[in-house]
Write a structure and sequence with these properties.
Elements: E1 2-8, H1 14-23, E2 27-30, H2 37-44, E3 53-57, H3 69-78, E4 84-89, H4 92-102, H5 114-130, E5 134-137, H6 143-154, E6 164-171, E7 182-185, H7 206-214, H8 216-238, E8 243-250, H9 256-270, E9 274-279, H10 284-287
Length: 290
Amino acid sequence: MRFVIVTGMSGAGKSTAAKMLEDLGFFCVDNLPPALIPKFAEICSAQGSEIDKVAVGIDTRGGKLFSDLFDGLEALKAKGFNYEILFLDASDHVLIKRFKETRRKHPLIDSERINVGIEKERHILKEVKEKADYIIDTSNILTRQLKEELFHIFVEEKPFESLMITVLSFGFKYGIPNDSDLVFDVRFIPNPYYIPEMKHKTGNDKEVQEYVMHWEESQTFLSKMEDLVEFLIPNYIKEGKNQLVISIGCTGGKHRSVTLANALYEVLKKKGHRTIINHRDIDKDKKLGK
């Protein structure tokens, strides 16, 4: 029987992940007291039971009961059950934004600020995160992308790489993304914006891509950027980093940065890295009515 513990930061998507696992054939139970885990596993594996995949949601809502988690897991192992820990995480900035948008109160605070609850929870969950088999940072991924991640892990059983890479295009005139780990400036490349037939197109259009990558400087830059990122990835993983945001910027975030971001994304995907693409400012001019 496959037994998965689903835990992580409040607001990081634990409930969403549990629902997705249920869709993948898991029998799911949310917020089970950790002390009951061994007994629950026995019931699920009893003779005649058709349950072969179980996911149990455990979080800090259990208060002091959460401290029993490792005792419960040790007892589970002693009874011959193997388990895996799926940990959902997100940056403090994203968690605060999500709590404000949903107007929910953090479970570990009363009248204090949200960031106080997040800090408390990170301290409580530190050991659990260190022992997790899978850590998924949901800061920059869409719901469908989370579903794909879970499908790869629990259905296709592909090797799991802890580092999630976000390749993000942006426009400098709208500001540098505040969650960037690496920032590349491609404003040295000739700008398709000044060519009338390309002005209203983007780096997602073949004509713009061909123009941007036509220049030797663009090809050399892409090659050097690939080499740097490939060097950094294993070192970031070794240091326990779970989220890497590579931001590529041009003036408006519509032509050059989009083209180079797409190119880097395709290279990283082909090499098997967990990678997502995000064009932050590609539609900004449309939204502003320009």
